[in-house]
Amino acid sequence: MIELAKIDDIGVHAQRLVRVPKKGNKGDDDFRAPFFALGLLLAGYRWTSHAPPLHSLDDSTVSARPEDLIMPALELDLFLCRTDNFGVLLHDPESGETASIDAPEEQPILDALERRGWTLTHIFTTHHHNDHVEANLALKTRYDATIIGPDREASRIPGIDMTIGDGGDFTFAGHKVHVIGTPGHTAGHICYHLPDDRLLFAADTLFALGCGRLFEGSPADMWSSLQKLMALPDDTQVYFGHEYTLSNARFAVTVDPDNPELQARAAEIEDLRERGGFTAPTTLGLEKRTNPFLRPADPGIRAHLGMPSASDGEVFAEIRKRKDNF
Ligand code: ZN
Ligand code: FE
Fold this sequence. Notes:
With 326 residues, the chain is of the alpha/beta class.
């Protein structure tokens, strides 16, 4: 079992990223290595700050904020693990750093790394379920990857090195990562948001046309978690934990039958899945227009459910209940 004592915050750019002490760690000696590694990381971040700002041709849109500094785009690789889990690798071509979003299964992740010629440096864990952490220890042993995971579930994340919670920030290869606590599916579930890259890793909180089952939270918990995600920009690309989209689409049209964009999307998904294509990533804007779990305020859905004057939370709970029985 991992000890849970929180030791210290590490550095300005890694606030709230807290190192989990190794088993048997009794003194201060072991602290130096991660501080040194983080120092290098922060130094790397500062080096990139010498780059000129973007959009420098048009002064009206220039701001000198650090987030406007030139950074190479992150590369992503998406593949299937187990039966319907998505594996996602996030790679920074400049530094070579590569993160796996969760670790559902070792072999497909190894295959993807090999195909790309990437070396794993990090695992960003979203929640403790076995289909998201099963390969943690194997990958850590092979690559010495640093595992970051939710503070509220730290004791259940194999091999966890660093914990982070709701509102926490850290940098990955100089890219800002903001952590959003999204209880509902599990009590400590977190999503990873890279605001400057317009990327969200929502795992089992938000799916294309669906949302996670409520194993450890109430409908109210999940609804408030989803509202946090809905506040992000519409052009945010959303990667999610499972290819459940076909069955989600078949359910969605029963709740929101008069939504033409949903009907068109559902038909596209039938076709795409028939051909073996993946439905990830989606965008937040598309989900807000077609995912019934984000649309309890919609008058058409409310009318269809016979809940014209219920609260959004009540309508959400009814939709979730219907999906559980679909
Ligand atoms: Zn799960
Ligand atoms: Fe899952």
